[in-house]
Amino acid sequence: MQIVSLTVLATSLLICCSLANGAPSRDKAVSLILNHYAASDEPGIQYTVVSESDTVFTRSVGLSNVASNMALDASHTMAAFSMTKTLTAIAVLQLVEQNKIKLDDKVIAYVKHPYDPDITIRHLLNHTSGIPNPIPLKWVHLAQAHDDFDDQFELDKILNEHPTVDFQPGNRYQYSNIGYWLLGSVIARASEKSYSQYLSEHLFQPLNLSASEVGFKIHDKNNHANGYLKQWSFMGLFGRLLVDAKMLGENESGWRHVKDVYLNGASFGGAIGTARAFAKILQDLLSTNSILLGPAAKQLLYQQQVLSSGTGIDMTLGWHVDELEGIAYYYKEGGGAGFHSEMRIYPQNGLASVIMSNRTSFDSRQILSELDLHFVTTKKSQPHTDK
């Protein structure tokens, strides 16, 4: 308890100093917070803050591999899980720009499904379709089995197991992984490419992001962080009852290693990459001359959505919406066995942030808010590069 108290006191002092001394003291305060949440012998954290033109702050702490005591660095990839949904939304809006789809097109025109035929692409994007959201903990397969994986077969199986909507489309908000899985099929049908191929060619390559930085496969096993569950946590103790036991590896100094897996539906949570790569995507969205989206499509990405009744929801066509001490931001969180992450854009401050950790029990919302406050309350942030 004494160590924690000293850490909090030291952080408070550094925050006060940062107001007077600017970026150097601010960066020390942020680094101290990161060290507090990921000790040198624990799974780690990647954290990056960018403006339109600069990397404002970036640092990695903790371990990529607990058993071998390998430090986590900025080049290690991690599973992003539901952060992928914003990438899927960007791809859909690109296809809208290309006049290959329309937001109010019926989904049934692109992909067969058992739900209400009036469900539109817009309903899927803003989670108002009424499609159910069963817990997807077992919708994964081992990376070594990926060559034999059949996405359409697995999607059809889930649709058959959960064939009924929970409410009429547009009547209320309800998060749905199945909805975004269907969007992957829409993208494939409209673009005449596989979902992963389309995103590689139209999101990653235009930003000069290589397959070693972001994609839908583990590009280099030696440069991919191990995912972990805390041994003495609910998931660590009872994970074998909730997920396929073959996904769980050995205990490593109090951390249960989660074997490398891919989600069955890439479009709702399959992206794998670094915080730096996701930050580069956000950096493009901050730009007035975005490579990924034209002005009209980018405006749609941030447009607040409404129900059929006209009631607004805290959702856009790809982002959730919230505030940090009165400062509006758009965010997407991602979490699953072994990893947890979140990315945000603060339009008022011209900043974006990404945090990724290779542990399931990681409170990305609270920790990212604590870190981001050091930057979004500053009128002009000075660039910083991790060495």
Key attributes of the depicted protein:
single chain, 387 residues, alpha+beta, Beta-lactamase, 16 strands, globular
Give an account of the 3D structure.
The chain contains 12 helices and 16 strands. The chain has a 6-stranded antiparallel sheet, with helices on both faces. A 3-stranded antiparallel sheet has the order 5-12-7. It is an alpha+beta fold. It has helices spanning 2-21, 23-37, 84-97, 121-125, 151-161, 177-191, 195-204, 234-242, 266-269, 275-286, 295-301, 364-376, and strands at residues 45-50, 55-61, 63-65, 70-71, 78-79, 140-142, 214-215, 227-230, 248-252, 255-258, 261-263, 272-273, 320-324, 327-336, 339-346, 351-357. Helix 2 (23-37) packs antiparallel against helix 12 (364-376) and helix 3 (84-97) runs parallel beside helix 6. The radius of gyration is 21 Å and the shape is globular. The protein has a single domain, classed as DD-peptidase/beta-lactamase superfamily (Beta-lactamase, 3-Layer(aba) Sandwich). The two termini are 32 Å apart. The model is unreliable at 1-20 (pLDDT under 50). The protein is 35% helix and 19% strand.
What is the topology?
Blueprint: H1 2-21, H2 23-37, E1 45-50, E2 55-61, E3 63-65, E4 70-71, E5 78-79, H3 84-97, H4 121-125, E6 140-142, H5 151-161, H6 177-191, H7 195-204, E7 214-215, E8 227-230, H8 234-242, E9 248-252, E10 255-258, E11 261-263, H9 266-269, E12 272-273, H10 275-286, H11 295-301, E13 320-324, E14 327-336, E15 339-346, E16 351-357, H12 364-376
Antiparallel strand pairs: 1-2, 1-16, 3-4, 5-12, 6-11, 7-12, 8-10, 9-10, 13-14, 14-15, 15-16
Helix pairs in contact: 1-2, 2-12, 3-6, 3-7, 3-11
